[in-house]
Give the backbone structure.
Amino acid sequence: MDWNSQLLSSLWVHDRWITGAEQRHASTHYGAYAHTTTGGIHIISITAEFWYAGYSFNFWNMCNPDTSGILAWLAQELSACEFCGQTAWIIGHFLSGYDGSNAIDNPSALFYSIVVRFSPSTVAGIFFGYTHQDQLQIFYDYLPNSTHRYNGRTYRKKTLIDYSKPLVIAYTSVPITPPTGLNAGYSIYQVDS
């Protein structure tokens, strides 16, 4: 995947989508980068392939929900945004798995926890692709009783969701290059401040 990240990031910087510093990060971090737009929105592009169950190499270390470090980096970026009072959008390919998609539980649960931690004040929107359908996913807060202590550690039961407290929406766009039998399309989102 390293050659692919290097190639793509060189194209992004060539077309001025990202800066040289962002390109260096993307080329060494699986294509993930963060970029602040002229409008002040911090766009964080993550490599969400690390939670896709269709990739057999994602099962090599099931005890670690963040084998690539992408989710730790996402949390660091969001912490920096929170500190500066800046809003962020997260973009990625694969959904987090709470919509019934084909995702591995542990990374999906960690991503969900990160989104809940930084929403709605910092995370203003999440945008995905992959499902080849126009759909949305609502991230809700956890119930107050969703955590418990065991052997000095705190654990969360990820199914204890408070559906009366929506935090942020993830939009999934239709594909420009669909699989056989589906129509090509694209989505335009108009977002207000």
